[in-house]
Amino acid sequence: MLLNSQKLSKVFAVYKRLGFFKREKKEVKALANFSLEISKPIIYGLVGPNGAGKTTFIKHCLGLVEKTSGQIQVLGFDPYQRKPDFLRQVGLVSGQKQNLDPNLPAMDSLLLSGYLYDMQEPDITNRINYLVDLFDIREKIDVPVRQLSLGQRMKFEIISSVLHSPKFLFMDEPTIGLDFDAQNTMRVLLKKLHQTDNLSILLTSHYMPDITELCERVAVINKGEKVFDGTLKELTDSKQKDGYLKTLVEELNKDIRVES
Amino acid sequence: MNATIEFKPSLMQKLLGRNYKWWYLTVYSFKQSNIRLSSFLIGNFASVLDFAITIYLWLFIDPTADRITYFFVGFILQRLIWSQYFGYFSESIISGKIVNRLLIPVSNTSYWFFREIGSSVIRNLISASLIFTFLPFYINYLKLPTLNFVLLILPLLAVSFIIDFLVSYILASIAFWTEDIRPISYLAVIIIKVLSGIAIPFSFLPAPYNWLLQYNPYSMLNYHPMQIYLGKYDTNQTIFVFIGGLLWCLILYFLAKLVFKLGLKRNESVGL
């Protein structure tokens, strides 16, 4: 099993200040009995409105936050233990978080990443050569990251996240802020990566084309709870009465019509 | 189209093998500091100015060779040892950038330790050049070090560097519990100046505070090394101080690991 989450729950404590010394504790449920199973390398879409719990789930998959209850295993590991063997097999791309030093050329950060993942030379150089060609960004590798466009920077962010050949890549809104061309390019590249590296991808996105063009299966999350889990076709063919799911299905179908 | 990147192993790569990553991390940190050279220059100039004012004042208060040497050499030790990564580490916790760190399969302590070494190279180069410009003004007041100090300078510096690194690590980890670490960092700088003896020599403080302060870990940063430098300690006392420093390293190492582990439990990886 690549990913196995059973009744995963997360409650965050939020404090509201009532006076200088007094504050009120509130509990916010970010995940409620969330179960998900991924058994073969696919691109899996995790969809939901803002604050639904998508990113919280990714944080749990990577062991970045402690669960309140339930079970989660990724590639057979308890993520929260953050064992080196586990970390070498996972990667993260976040559209909102930069991994590369903006003042240095991407090449420096990529080499550092390779060494820190205990990769050996010439494997690092070979892998960088392969990825910069795949992403068609070789000519920008010696340019300081802050001088790159958002699309170019995202390409290097993805290269940095897959440099160590992870088995599972978690992508949190990777196309956010990109123009349509850059979004399309990114989707083509992700598909290629998935095929050539046999890479499993769990993807969250608010852009419907990311879901319709990339994902074989989709889980829909709302208010921390899973409200749908199945193939994209099952979702688009389903009859939803109201609420977020109805809007989502309408948007997905609209996008599929445009594509066809 | 650029040419294919070719791998040419460096001597360091051949020598260090798998541990080359630590060397590269140090070099990477050096490069990062080099880019921020102008801010480094201003920051260092400010502290050297602070040093010049302190020495100038002590020339009026107690213009003996012991006192002026205590502050002059003490300042050089401070520049060599005092870590600067506190801000970067605590900021990475508050902004959530620590996520990138937590996903790399290396120890967080080691990661910041080698980054600190890399950035300290630039800092020390700048400080050295500034201090040497002041040297001619104070040369007549300065004493030469004792043999014990010369023999022990490297291990003493290493122990002091590690102690300062670990205390900063613990203090920076407080960022897991607060949204704004700046007040703590301001407070820490003042407290550390007092605890290390760089602000006021312990002998100026009333008993039992001066006696108690000798046993705090920060006394290894300035007070004890300077007592050895000035010949105030015999060989037995010097060895005792050195062993005490090693014990502090051990205690602080486990404390740093514990505080970071407890902090991680509160980590919400904001902004991801």
Compact description:
The complex is a heterodimer of chains A (260) and B (272). Chain A has 260 residues and is of the alpha/beta class.
Tell me how many strands of chain A there are.
Answer: 9
Helix content bin of chain B: over 70%
Count of helices of chain A?
9
Give the percentage of residues in beta strands of chain A: 25-35%
Instruction: Please name the two chains that share the biggest interface, counting residues whose Cβ lies under 8 Å from a Cβ on the partner chain.
Output: A-B, 48 and 35 residues
* Overall body shape of chain B: globular
Strand order of the largest sheet of chain A: 5-6-7-3-8-9
Quickly give the structural class of chain A. alpha/beta
Query: What order do the helices and strands of chain A follow?
Result: EEEHEHEHHHEHEHEEHH
Oligomer class = heterodimer
Kindly report the average pLDDT value of chain B.
86
Any overview of this molecule?
The complex is a heterodimer of chains A (260) and B (272). Chain A is α/β, with parallel strands linked by helices and 260 residues long. Chain A contains 9 helices and 9 strands. In chain A, the strands form 2 sheets. Chain A has a 6-stranded mixed sheet. A 3-stranded antiparallel sheet of chain A has the order 2-1-4. In chain A, strand 6, helix 6 and strand 7 form a beta-alpha-beta unit. Chain B is globular, with a radius of gyration of 20 Å.
Essential attributes:
heterodimer; A: 260 residues; alpha/beta; six-stranded mixed sheet; three-stranded antiparallel sheet; 9 helices; 9 strands; 37% helix; B: 272 residues; mainly alpha; 12 helices; 72% helix; globular
SSE blueprint and pairings:
The complex is a heterodimer of chains A (260) and B (272).
Chain A: E1 3-17, E2 23-38, E3 43-47, H1 54-61, E4 69-74, H2 84-87, E5 90-94, H3 106-116, H4 123-134, H5 150-162, E6 168-172, H6 180-197, E7 200-204, H7 208-214, E8 217-222, E9 225-231, H8 232-237, H9 243-259
Parallel strand pairs in A: 3-7, 3-8, 5-6, 6-7
Antiparallel strand pairs in A: 1-2, 1-4, 8-9
Chain B: H1 11-16, H2 20-35, H3 37-61, H4 65-81, H5 86-95, H6 98-102, H7 108-138, H8 147-173, H9 182-196, H10 209-213, H11 223-229, H12 235-266
Helix pairs in contact in B: 2-7, 3-4, 3-7, 4-7, 5-8, 8-12
